[in-house]
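lol so apparently i was supposed to do this last week
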Amino acid sequence: MKISVKTKGKLSDNRAVVVWLGEEGKSGLFFKQLPADLKRSVAPLIEKKRFSGKAGSAFLQGTGAGWLVLTGIGKEKKLCLNRLRKSGAVAARTALAARLLELAVPVPSVPKATVEQTAQAVVEGVWLGTYHFDRKGTKSKEETGLKELELTVSAAPAVSAAQKGARQGKILCESVCLARDLGNAPSNEMTPARLAQAAQKAGREAGFRVQVWGPAEIAKRKMGALMGVARGSREPARFIRMEYVGPRSAGRKPLLLVGKGITFDSGGISIKPSNKMEEMKFDMCGAAAVIGAMRAIAMLKLPARVVGLAPATENLPGGSAQKPGDIVRAMNGKTIEVINTDAEGRLILADALSYAQTLKPAAIVDLATLTGACVVALGDQAAGLMGNDERLLEQVKQAGSRSGDKVWPLPLWKAHTDAVRSQVADVKNVGNGKAGTITAAAFLKEFVGEFPWAHLDIAGTAWADGTCGYQVKGGTGFGVRLLVEWVKGWR
Ligand code: BES
Ligand code: MN
Ligand code: ZN
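anyway here it is w/ zinc ion bound
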């Protein structure tokens, strides 16, 4: 999609021009600020109640000169960047449904937001809301996406700010869509080796270093918990290490991003029921978010030092699979009793977090599709947030709300740690059947030492069941924008 910034959006037969309108209708500012010709086209539609201005509504209207997409933003005073993203997505899909492949969108004024931020949010909404995973059929591929997006600003001085926002939005959206593609790819394609190749490709493209370790190097580093999970599969495991050193950042302690990379989770010997098991190809979305974020951070040349880690393996019940009751030893020396082989994410993260400690990080953020309990607790609107450092947790929460990747805190107390103590090893990989999301985090806490650490359980947010706002059915790329925003704001 080509993006440009202009001071005036022209009407024509093969393009759609977005008209933002509030619930206030004709008495609202958005209507009052329209040019006279648009006012004339729009007024009757409001009068006849064809269009309400409700957030998430859109209406395609032809005029003699071209096409308008009336797009509701709800109460004008309540407009925020996230609502704008969602409305932008609805507008873009409305145009696309009518095969209008060029879209002109005015950058509206949003309370407390700059032109740069607003332009970026429009790009995010339009781009992410019209994403399609290339379907693999026998028919030849048809053009599915928008071809051109033209942002329009009211006056010349705003052009460069809008351009800057558009450029950042583009980089972010490409990176989010990379993460979506990785999550949507079937597991026979997206094996641990292929996931590692995708990281290498992103590294070449964006300019960060990627190292990939196979089974021998994983064994040499004594990552026994990752090896335990990998035993059940013929597909060899990978440990992916990415490193980006930004301007003036060489001597700094790194920020660590860690993502769960289970390319398929059958549950292992503790096998899952077959209903919806196909969705478990998405169990590498934490890793995908880290790869996507590394790409964006490097392309934006953020002044930071960032290391991304992604342990990657399948979780299958092969003949040499680990079994319930087995005891494995993680890289930091701690022993783990494997009660349930389906609690595999925390096992591979145990080694990745142990390794992270050896880099003396300034902070660690991990993302994982870790527990079904988190889907029950928070649904698909927010990721669970837990950790050991209030300041870091607050930063991550703020980055979440600015970016639109929402997170919500859950407690993490000593009682939760007690629930993962084992009789026969240092820890066990399941709790006591209560607060499953939190006991999973309590388990991870055993592997981060004293370093500031935040854990995001993205089990509910990494996958969308349907198209809504700027999410489309399938992988969401959740976490990419949050991580970039967090690294941007880090001091
Ligand atoms: N990848 C799953 C978590 C999951 C389940 C994500 C459903 C999205 C939807 C994870 O590996 C898992 O199986 N967790 C178990 C843990 C349990 C055995 C303690 C779970 O949540 O059931
Ligand atoms: Mn599992
Ligand atoms: Zn899993």
